[in-house]
């Protein structure tokens, strides 16, 4: 690597700052949505030497110090790798890559096509809605339990007037029904749900291996306490809202279980084809009848418009509340209830959901596999293969089966957490990839800023 790589961490932090929708929570590392670089800048090469994702599959007993060392590296890696997979290897992720491709390859001398840059620009801004749309009350106590209900609103247009694009909010209350938080269900809500669920499972797999029983009990208890603190942090509800909805819907008191179940539904929403959105919208009266909503009510109109916009947050919500309230007795019953819920919307899981997802993915891949941006073509190829591996199991992933790039560490060195020969992204030059992609990003954002 060249000497320029010494500043690569700082360059990525600077160029991604305005777009990073996870900066409130991903403080130890990040996935850069515009360059596809996974960066764990809180770690340096000595701390990850010899550590790979395969360490999570071991059942060998370890001491507390070893557990802490592995957790520091692997829990963070799993979290950011899950963002990489969801943003490149789900159907939503492949659409994201296609929008990126169209924006980055847009030629400078054809102004009639510049709109694709602004479309991608707006897409990035909507990953996490601006802070204005989240309200946190300082007036009332935030003690558990929290209650919640759905409300709706609309995005404001650039001229400051209400637009037609709906926003689904969840309002949280304390047990006295005093309002605590209003949080949107955004795309980033689904993405962070999946990453948190994967992170928690990675942590639990390591905690179970602590040999000393007392140390294992204490460490596990501390982990579960921290999970609850995250879940009930009023300032982070846009990231945890999906887990809250699941906890309330299925009467779950364990944070890790709520995140796991929410991640399953989130993955189904992220892999939903445009045909599935259209079918759910066509049969949405079934949902309205089940929850007691009239078709003409404002909430019903907002849900219909959101589904018409192919909003994965809206799909997450209606699937969650179409499922049986006792579905989370065990993983099998949960999966069965999800399949039944989709069938009630007219979507046969294998014939309609999985088939149309793969058909749409194939169509997207056909467009971007020959992208003039080598990084996009390479990541799209890996993502398409990853999706084909995941789609049959509700989209749930096993990272050691995925194609994953190396990560960039805080000392500007690369580390391959997945060095297997089958990994098509092993050893990718992150510096070259970043500088290639940053050119497209800069051109896109300069034009996006010019649209006033």
UniProtKB/TrEMBL annotation:
Q: Which domain of life is it from?
A: Bacteria
Official protein name in the record: Uncharacterized protein
Name the species this protein comes from. Pseudomonas fluorescens (strain Pf0-1)
């Amino acid at each position: 690597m060249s000497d320029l790589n010494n500043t690569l961490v700082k360059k990525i932090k600077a160029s991604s700052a305005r777009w990073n929708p996870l900066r409130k929570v991903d403080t130890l590392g990040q996935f850069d949505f515009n360059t596809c670089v996974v960066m764990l800048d809180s770690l340096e090469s000595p701390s990850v030497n010899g550590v790979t994702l395969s360490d999570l599959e071991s059942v060998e007993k370890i001491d507390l110090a070893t557990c802490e060392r592995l957790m520091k590296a692997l829990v963070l890696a799993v979290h950011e790798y899950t963002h990489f997979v969801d943003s490149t290897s789900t159907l939503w992720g492949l659409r994201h890559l296609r929008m990126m491709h169209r924006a980055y390859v847009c030629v400078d001398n054809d102004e009639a096509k510049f709109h694709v840059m602004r479309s991608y620009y707006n897409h990035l801004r909507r990953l996490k809605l601006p802070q204005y749309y989240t309200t946190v009350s300082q007036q009332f106590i935030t003690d558990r339990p929290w209650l919640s209900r759905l409300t709706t609103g609309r995005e404001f247009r650039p001229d400051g007037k209400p637009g037609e694009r709906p926003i689904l909010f969840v309002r949280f209350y304390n047990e006295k029904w005093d309002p605590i938080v209003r949080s949107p269900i955004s795309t980033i809500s689904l993405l962070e749900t999946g990453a948190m669920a994967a992170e928690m499972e990675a942590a639990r797999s390591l905690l179970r291996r602590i040999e000393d029983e007392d140390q294992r009990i204490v460490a596990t208890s501390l982990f579960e306490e921290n999970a609850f603190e995250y879940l009930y942090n009023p300032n982070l509800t846009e990231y945890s809202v999906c887990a809250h909805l699941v906890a309330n819907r299925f009467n779950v008191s364990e944070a890790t279980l709520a995140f796991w179940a929410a991640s399953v539904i989130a993955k189904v929403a992220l892999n939903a084809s445009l045909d599935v959105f259209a079918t759910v919208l066509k049969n949405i009266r079934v949902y309205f009848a089940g929850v007691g909503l009239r078709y003409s009510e404002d909430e019903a109109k907002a849900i219909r418009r959101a589904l018409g916009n192919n909003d994965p947050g809206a799909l997450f919500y209606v699937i969650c509340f179409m499922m049986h309230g006792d579905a989370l007795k065990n993983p099998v019953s949960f999966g069965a209830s999800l399949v039944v819920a989709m069938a009630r919307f007219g979507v046969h899981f294998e014939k309609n959901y999985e088939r149309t997802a793969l058909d749409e993915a194939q169509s997207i891949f056909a467009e971007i596999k020959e992208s003039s941006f080598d990084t996009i073509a390479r990541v799209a190829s890996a993502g398409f293969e990853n999706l084909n591996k995941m789609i049959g199991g509700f989209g749930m992933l096993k990272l050691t089966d995925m194609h994953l790039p190396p990560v960039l560490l805080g000392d500007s060195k690369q580390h391959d957490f997945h060095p297997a020969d089958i990994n098509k992204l092993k050893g990718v030059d992150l510096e070259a990839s970043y500088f290639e992609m940053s050119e497209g990003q800069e051109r896109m954002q300069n034009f996006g800023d010019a649209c006033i």
